[in-house]
Amino acid sequence: MTSKLLRGRTLSFVRRPEARDDHGSYVYEEDGGLLIADGRIEAAGGYDDMIGKAPAGVEIIDHRPHLLMAGFIDPHIHFPQMQVTASYAANLLEWLNTYTFVEEQRFGDEAHAARFAKLFFDELLRHGTTTAAAYCSVHKGSADAYFAEAARRNLLMVGGKVMMDRNAPEALTDTAQSGYDDTKSVIADWHGKARNHVAITPRFAITSTPGQLEAAGALAREHADLLIQTHLSENDAEIAYTLELYPEAKDYTDIYARYGLLTDKALLGHAIHLSDREMGAIAEAGAVAVHCPTSNLFLGSGLFDLERIRTNNVRTAIATDIGGGSSYSMLRTLDEAYKIQQLNGFRFSPLEAFWQATRGNGEALGLAGRIGTLEPGTDADIIALDASATPAMAIRMETVTTLEEELFLLQTLGDDRSVRSVYVAGEPVSMA
User: Fold this and answer.
1) Are the C-beta atoms of 189 and 144 separated by less than 8 Å?
2) Predicted pLDDT of residue 273
3) Residues paired with 288 in a beta bridge
4) Is the C-alpha dihedral spanning 51, 11, 198, 223 positive or negative?
5) Looking at residue 430, what DSSP letter applies?
6) Which H/E stretch holds residue 115?
7) How far apart are alpha carbons 383 and 132 in whole angstroms?
8) Which of 58, 128, 187, 284 could be 419's S-S partner, Cβ–Cβ 3.0 to 4.6 Å?
9) Whether pLDDT at 267 is above 70
């Protein structure tokens, strides 16, 4: 690969912002340069310094006045649910049974799964998302299709074959043993191949028997480096039903803890309705509460209390949760998160929002050494954002004077039209 030098305004976070004006939490260059070679960022800094370090004949790509950032990271999304998005239902359980479980059965067809793997990654990239942690369907072939397409495009993706052995249609269930065996096969076939990462994926306690959660726990012990993804405390009716199925548990969180699934590798989707005891257990384990704002609003599940979560030292991430979520865009996701926190009486700053969508989500996945920043040595997954992408945005930009105001404008009015360029491992992606 030839070296590239990207020129533009560069922004990369070094830690979580501690205040709305925490300028020490990021590195910003008004005229910045990113020197890329062999799929990685070789050097980053002011453009004049970078041009001095660049080899002769380097390809210079000028993105000014756009903002160059690490690609967005979506840590909770459902690959088989593209055609479930925008389905009309009263609540989570009705939505699952009426639409989602019906649609996911189609992913037993390998050709269907392969077709949607292409569509899925097209849509993510169009919205500036270069890494996601996805639930595939219960079928091993759906995970094969997902990882094969990710490898073909050289994307860094996390995914897992869903484990689900009860309370779903027969065509959409496995068994404790087959779920274990199929997951082992997916790990052997795909984990560490190209840029792929496999996650252990019991859907949630309602759709797994105790035997299956035991099998998932065994996988977690055997593959301690793998992420675990599941759902927790999304909806009041879901919680009540879950506790009926596991009457011996102290609470919903305790179910996962009993089976060895509450660890620092656990991504807990939603985590809205948590007791103080649950907060403490999650914080002690180092697990991650994944906020899914558009989904929580769309399904009427509840309001994620970020201030309480932070006060209890629980790690966080933010995600689209397609297809319960209503947008693939991390910008739209940040906008809805801001509104939820407004209703909770907490002011969610744009600096923290963009930290979360990049480095913060990278830390949640344990991959901040590779993605989520513009630091030298990291993978060159980069996006160029345009805060004047629409007429309404351009008008507002006339009065914007600070970086924080620009970021807030991007998250409030921006969408896929604000994503002007995407690079995956240093290579430009066609945005047609």
Assistant:
1) yes
2) 98
3) 267, 315
4) positive
5) P
6) helix 110-126
7) 15
8) 128
9) yes
